[in-house]
Amino acid sequence: MENILRYYLMPHPPLIIPSVGKGQESVIQNTIDACNQIGEEISSLKPETIVIITPHGTMFSDAVAISNEEHIKGDFSQFRDFETYIEGRIDKEFNEELIEICKKDNIPAAGIDSEILSKFNREYELDHGAMIPMYFINKYYKNYKIVHVTYAALSDIELYKFGMAIKKSAEKLNKKIVLIASGDLSHRLSEDGPYEYSSEGSKFDKLLLDNLEKGDVLGVFNMDKYMVECAGECGLRSVFIMLGAMEGEEVKGKLLSYEGPFGVGYGVMAFNNEIKKHSNLEELIKMKNQLYNKKISNNNLYVKLARESLNHYYTYGHLMAKPGDLPHELSKEMGGVFVSLKKFGKLRGCIGTFLPTTDSIAE
User: Fold this and answer.
1) What number is the average pLDDT over the span 156-171?
2) How many angstroms separate the Cα of 342 from the Cα of each of 97, 116, 280, 350?
3) Which of 11-15, 174-178, 337-341 has the lowest mean pLDDT?
4) Which of 38, 116, 247, 348 minimizes the number of CB atoms within 10 Å of its CB?
5) Quick one: average pLDDT of 140-158?
6) How far apart are CA 357 and CA 145, in angstroms?
7) Percent of the chain whose pLDDT exceeds 90
8) Which pLDDT does position 158 carry in this prediction?
9) Spatial CA neighbour of 243 closest among 176, 182, 159
10) What is the pLDDT of residues 178-236, one digit of tens each?
11) How far apart are the C-alpha atoms of 209 and 220, rounded to whole Å?
């Protein structure tokens, strides 16, 4: 029997809590019913620990954050509900094992506590991305500890490997756990939504849920980046981690509910465990390498030279000499040059001039 008993995708709309929604929650009754169904299922599974992956805790760009004090608590005061609160006991034993495995496997992850967060003027607390799934679980089952994880702005492969580390930790400790990927889908489904409308939003929601139902892991990781960016989602990285925890298993998703009446997509899914002697990680790495090689082989001469220059400098520590086999337009003509460097689609650096400052564009 697997140590991870079940996986779930759950949304986190604050108004689903009656004291916040004040009647508006009735519009997403299907979502409420599906979340209650998950709470009842978890009660029957009786896990020792529930791992919750959330987008809304304190997020770091360079490491997954794992809340690491004995207890953690949060409330809904930011949503004008000053009475409802959720609290949980942290599974520090699981945290320690998870952090150790991440260290061995070179996965950027760190335990965080009040002292660390105070340096960033942040509170050690539960966020609504974790509290809302816990609200529905606590209605039916309370005898569990939590591992509260806020994903980071890492690559999709690194997040997948972090999911694998969760699985290794559960196996090493022989603990029965449930994993919840907390995340809303597109926030741009309508003109009335919290963000500007995009026609890509509904496409993203449909494609992601279809891929998860079919168990098409490569399809999830190969979704068009423009579509993902336009969708304005907050759940995809949670899904990457969840799929990593499913490494070696057959991914079979069952859609319990999907609604989007407020311009935000709320998807609720359950996943069944089925052992499969196959590595999605190997296929993912192979796919990423193929896409990368295709990308650099299709670059024009200007981009190729910029890339070679960067690679040379970071490999050897000094500037490369100007290649002798460049065409006239690069080696003899003068012009302004501007280079942008992006990491995971985000701008990380740029430098250049709009007028010539050297004897050639190549220089």
Assistant:
1) 96
2) 33, 29, 26, 9
3) 337-341
4) 348
5) 96
6) 62
7) 80
8) 95
9) 159
10) 999 999 999 999 988 888 999 999 999 999 999 999 999 999 999 998 999 999 999 99
11) 9
Are the C-beta atoms of 222 and 294 separated by less than 8 Å?
A: no
Do 32 and 205 form a contact (C-beta atoms < 8 A)? Answer: no
Asked if 208 and 260 count as a contact pair (C-beta separation under 8 A), the reply is no
85: tokens are 């609160």
Interaxial angle between packed helices 156-173 and 280-297, expressed in degrees from 0 to 180 and rounded to the nearest 10: 170
Measured from the Cβ of residue 226, the count of other Cβ atoms closer than 10 Å reads 10
Residue 255 main-chain phi, psi, to 5 deg: -75, 120
* CA 137/CA 180 separation, integer angstroms: 11
- How far is residue 158's CA from residue 156's CA, in Å, rounded to a whole number? 5
Confirm if 182 and 130 have CB atoms less than 8 A apart. yes
Which residues are CB-contacts of 38 (< 8 A; sequence separation ≥ 6)?
A: 8, 10, 133, 136, 137, 256, 268, 270
Token readout for 206 is 């449909």
261: Cβ contacts below 8 Å, ≥ 6 apart: 27, 28
Q: Is 206 exposed, middle or buried (0-12, 13-18, 19+ CB in 10 A)?
A: middle
The pLDDT tens digits of the residues spanning 239-263 come to: 999 999 999 888 889 999 999 999 9
Residue 355 exposed, middle or buried by CB count within 10 Å (0-12, 13-18, 19+): exposed
The pLDDT assigned to 118 comes to 95
